[in-house]
């Protein structure tokens, strides 16, 4: 192999590895209900057991109403070191009556979502705020080389 062929092969390998590093990493969280499986469930005839056998256990149940089941899932893509982007989000809500028969199915997708701004406040605490340097130098000279405990001269040792 000649020198120029080696350089071309190295450049090609570098290009392929760079392209592989830029391909998105896809992650699925929760349970995204597919349309074909949802088609197997029918309002008025399916019950909790049918839904659980078809879709698995629900992601969550209603806090105040255990007859409401939620199947929540989302798919994200992340490229390199950037923050992940949500490409699909789906929430399917099943409402059952008291005899466990399915009465209503609601679906919510990514378009119905709302962005919530996080408030970054801190809770004040009692005491003095110390810098890193003050914390490190604050313990200098506080420790002695004496053994502690019974028979030693350290803290907690009996005084004679």
Indicate the percent of residues in helices.
10-25%
Main β-sheet, in a few words?
A: 5 strands, antiparallel
The helix/strand order is: HEHHEEEEH
Shape: flat
Strand content is 15-25%
Averaged pLDDT? 82
Total helical segments: 4
Provide a descriptive summary of the structure in words.
- A hairpin with a 6-residue loop joins strand 2 (60-61) and strand 3.
- Strands 1, 2, 3, 4 and 5 form a 5-stranded antiparallel sheet that branches.
- The protein is built from 4 helices and 5 strands.
- It has 160 residues and is an alpha+beta fold.
- The protein has a domain at 24-112.
- The model has no long low-confidence stretch (mean pLDDT 82).
- It has helices at residues 3-21, 35-38, 48-55, 132-137; strands at 25-30, 60-61, 68-78, 85-96, 102-109.
How would you summarize this macromolecular structure in one to three sentences?
The protein contains four helices and five strands, in the order αβααββββα.
How are the SSEs placed, and which strands pair?
Blueprint: H1 3-21, E1 25-30, H2 35-38, H3 48-55, E2 60-61, E3 68-78, E4 85-96, E5 102-109, H4 132-137
Antiparallel strand pairs: 1-3, 2-3, 3-4, 4-5
Kindly list the characteristics that best describe this protein.
23% helix; alpha+beta; five-stranded antiparallel β-sheet; 160 residues; 4 helices
């Amino acid at each position: 192999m000649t020198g120029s062929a080696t350089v071309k092969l190295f450049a090609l390998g570098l290009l392929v590895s760079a392209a592989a590093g830029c391909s998105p990493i896809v992650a699925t969280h929760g349970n995204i209900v597919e349309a074909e499986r949802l088609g197997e469930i029918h309002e008025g005839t399916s019950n909790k057991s049918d839904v659980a056998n078809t879709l698995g256990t629900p992601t969550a149940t209603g806090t105040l109403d255990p007859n409401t089941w939620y199947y929540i899932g989302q798919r994200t893509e992340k490229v390199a070191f950037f923050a992940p982007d949500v490409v699909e989000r789906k929430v399917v809500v099943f409402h059952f009556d008291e005899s466990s028969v399915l009465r209503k199915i609601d679906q919510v997708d990514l378009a119905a979502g709302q962005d919530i701004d996080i408030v970054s406040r801190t809770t004040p605490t009692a005491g003095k705020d110390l810098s890193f340097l003050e914390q490190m130098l604050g313990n200098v000279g506080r420790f002695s080389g004496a053994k502690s405990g019974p028979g030693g001269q350290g803290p907690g040792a009996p005084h004679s």
